[in-house]
Amino acid sequence: MDYSKYINSLLDEEYKVNPGDFIEEGSLPKEEMEVRYCLMAVKVALDKVSQYGFFSHVLKTRNYRMATDLLKQYEENLMITVNKSPIHKAAVRRIVNSMPVNNGGRDILLKYTR
């Protein structure tokens, strides 16, 4: 029995069809939506950290430290979320498996799939 047009079961580690960026409400498990929310928070925080220049990094300016602290907090939250249940772990594996092999984001996220 199919769970949705994207996955057959909650523990699938690959999509039947990649959902892309816009997902209809209820078409993915709530556990996957939790993981996606955490991933988005990490991405936004990482983008913020990367906006700081060389001197902010070297001098560890107050704003740079605040941004990196927030990034660490979001990364820890993502790790806690993906380890909540096998369904959460399967969700992060689906997301990572749908990314191109040479995608830098995929390399960063591999640690969350173990």
Report on this structure:
The chain is mainly α and 114 residues long. The chain contains 5 helices and no strands. It is elongated and about 55 Å long. The two termini are 27 Å apart.
- Series of H and E elements: HHHHH
* Beta strand count: 0
Shape category: elongated
Oligomer class: single chain
Mean of pLDDT? 92
Rg, rounded, reads: 16 Å
Topology:
Layout: H1 30-50, H2 54-59, H3 62-82, H4 86-97, H5 104-109
Helix pairs in contact: 1-3, 1-4
Question: Brief overview, please?
Answer:
Helix content is 58%, strand content 0%.
Task: Based on the model shown, name its key terms.
single chain; 114 residues; mainly alpha
